[in-house]
Every structure is written in structure tokens, then in C-alpha cells.
Fold this sequence. Notes:
Elements: E1 7-11, E2 14-18, H1 56-67, E3 98-108, H2 118-136, E4 141-147, E5 152-153, H3 172-186, E6 197-202, H4 206-209, E7 213-217, E8 241-245, H5 250-262, E9 264-265, E10 268-269, H6 277-280, H7 286-293, H8 319-325, E11 333-335, E12 342-346, E13 358-362, E14 367-374, E15 387-394, E16 407-409, E17 431-434, E18 439-447, E19 450-456
Parallel strand pairs: 3-4, 3-5, 3-6, 6-8, 11-13
Antiparallel strand pairs: 1-2, 2-17, 7-8, 9-10, 12-19, 13-14, 14-15, 15-16, 17-18, 18-19
Helix pairs in contact: 1-7
The structure holds zinc ion.
Amino acid sequence: MVVGESKRIVSDNQVYFVSPPFRQYSRPSRGVQRLSGYFPRGMGKASDTTSGAISKRRARFLLCSIVLISLFAVQPFTSVHGQPRQEMMRGRGQTCPIVQQGLIILVEFPDVPHTIDKRYAQKRFFKELNEYVQEMSCGKVCIQGDVTDKWYRMPHPVAEYRISSRNLEVDKSRLTKLILDALAEVDKDVNLSKYSFVAIFMGARLKDYGMIGLCGYPGMLGWSTQDILKTKSGQVVRGGVAIFSYQAHLGTLFHDTAHILGGVKEGKRMVPCLYDHDLQAKPGSMRETFVDAIINMGFWDPMSCHYYKWEMPPPGISSWTKMRLGWLDPSKVRVIKAGERGEVLLGPLGDPKAETLATKIPVTESTYYLIENRQAIGFDRNLPGNGVLIMHADDSVAECRHGKSPVKLVNANSSVPHLEGAAFDIGKNTSYVDLRHNVKIDLIDKLGNSYKIQIGPYQ
Ligand SMILES: [Zn+2]
């Protein structure tokens, strides 16, 4: 049912019932949590960016677009051999069932001074990232590990490793050189078999290195399992390798680590970037590039954009990304077949105690709808809005290329740019119809933070 007078919009076999008047999205007022733990050192000021004097909003777009980095090239490389992507371990008093052990290699360049110490790296990965991963996985996964005792100085100036901030312009040989030089330095000091992934943490800024964070494997250097990334002594790097400037936002740390945590299955990254690579590579201003690139999930998942606002922690991840990571309990997902009727009380995705956290409507062999409820709970306090998200997923699509994506938001209000108004809500946008597949989704009521949702055939 449509609440109030409704307007019917038909597009691409899909009908949106919208209750007018359209309301320009306004950000819900809420106190910005200035939790110091989430703010990367020295990146709160525009002077740390390449332009030196840009507005906060422009800085957000600039940095997001630079940061949209976890990359997709499929060129063969000395990539990491596929390893069991998760380990069942109990360690250091933690009780979470899956512990991802990271080796954080501190890397500095002979010509780049810095004052970052080991404790800062420990805090970034084993406190901030760990807390985020624990919340996203409902306590299933922890990030633990070690930071190298010393900074390993690269044999060459940073200019020899520096890469473009644009994905398609990155010199992959330079990336390879950085990874291999870092591994050569630590080879004699560490036992890599203890670790499920490696992160290179640079004592360098965005403007020194060119990128603020990226995933080498599975990412920029491909995800073939045919080759093995080894040190000179033959130690095998397991899981993958990510690279970060010390300025990287928590959302960036997560985004590029998530590529590794998701791993590779049947030749596909399980957790791909959700921004459009081709649009991100288009010429134009950083802002235009950025706006063009987040056509699939907007700010609603750090796999699309690492954060909504630089000065805030990242929002939570979508149920789609949670499912790809194996972090959403299947018992919390209600499945209703296309054409069938059902009613669901959908709890907030950020509330692990809710009985139902997502609703899946299989449509074809590879496609389905996924419905989730995003409320200002936990890291979802940092979203651009609240409400019910309807996603269309297609498992036959591996990566976000040429406008296609394995998951895309249905945009409840396209008058609001950048998918910030994508959420459906009572009193605003309450109904969605897919005529072709005979699927109708209606928001009936909001009870506390939960939504009563009816799903059924259109006809
Ligand atoms: Zn990525």
C-alpha cells in the first residue's frame, strides 16, 4: 500500500510509488562523535591534502575519490597463493571464534621524515580496525597480530615508489617494488606463517606516496592464485597485502583489509570494491570523478566510499557485504520467493539482537533483492540518512565495471544526489515494484527502530 497520495514512476520495468511532496534530504541532527580513535593523525586539516587549502566538503570529495582505491586490474603478478582465508584460533585472551592475525610492517622512506611511532600503528589496526570488524561481524571476527619493532627503511627515495592517485594510471611495477622491498627487509626478522595477512604501514603521507591506501592482492595486482608472493628466503605471504599511508581513514583501513578477509573464490574477489572503476578513471575534477564513481551504493557501505565525512568514523557495511564476508548469520535473513507473500519485521542492521536483519527475495538464478534497515546505531550513526535500503544484487557480476555491479541500491529519491536519499521510509517513499519479476515491497509501519514490511506479487 502507498501511504498518502502517491506518484507512480515507471522506469526500466520498475515502478516507484512515491508519496509527494519530495522532501529534500536533510541530514538528521546528531552529535558528531569525535571519538579520537577514529581520526587519523594529521588528516583533519586541509593543509594535509594536495591542494593545501580546500573546503571541508571539497576535501571530503577529494579525499574520497583519492581513497577509492582498492583495485581491480587482473594482470598476472607474483600474487599470493590462495590460503585458507580464515583461521580458527584462540589467542591472547580473545574469545571471538575467528582471529585474523595481521603483520603490520612499518615502512619509511629515506627522504620522508615522520614522527609516527609503533603504538600509533598498533592503535589503528588492533584497536580501531579490530573494534570495527568485531562490530560488523557481531563478535565473530577479531583483528590481532603484530607491528614490526622497527621502521624498515626502503632502499630508494619515495619518488621511486610513488604512484598515481588514479587507479588506471598506477604504475604496478612500482607497487610490486614496494611490496618486494618491504618483504625483503622483514624476511630475516619475521615468521610469515604466523600471519593471515600483511599490511604495509608507511611513514608517508598521501602527498608523498600518491595514494592513501590500496590493496595489492587481491586488488591492484590481480587475484590470480597461480603465482605465489614469496620472500627471497621462500616465505609465503598468506591472505594478501594491503598498503596504507599513516593518514588512512578507518574506513580505508577496513575497505582494503576487507578485500583480503573476503578472499578469492572461483576466480572472483568475494568482497569487491563497490564503486565503478571506469567512472572513477574518467578525466575531470576529483569531485566529478567521485560523484560519478559511487553510483552503486553511495555512502551506504565503505566498500563503495570509505566514509561519509572525513571527520567521522565510517558507517557500517551493508548486509550484502556482510553476507559476502560470512558475517551475517543466515538465520537472521528471511527469504521470500518472488511472487510469494510475506510480512517481515525488519530490525536495524546494526542491532545483532534483532530477529531479522535482512530479507532476501531471490528473483533469478543469479539475481535477488536484499532489504535492510539502517538506523543510527553503532557505526551506522555515520550514514547519510536512515531508513530501509532495497538492493538489487547479481552474483553473475564480479566487479563494478562499465556500470554493472554485483549489488546496487534502488534509489528511493533520485532528486537527492549521490544516493544520499536512497533509503525508503514511512511517510516519504514507501513502496517499490519490479513489474518484470512481479515483486512488490511495501513499508507498512515503523515500530521503534524496526519496520513492518510486506512483500508480495504486484498482480
Ligand atoms: Zn577496493
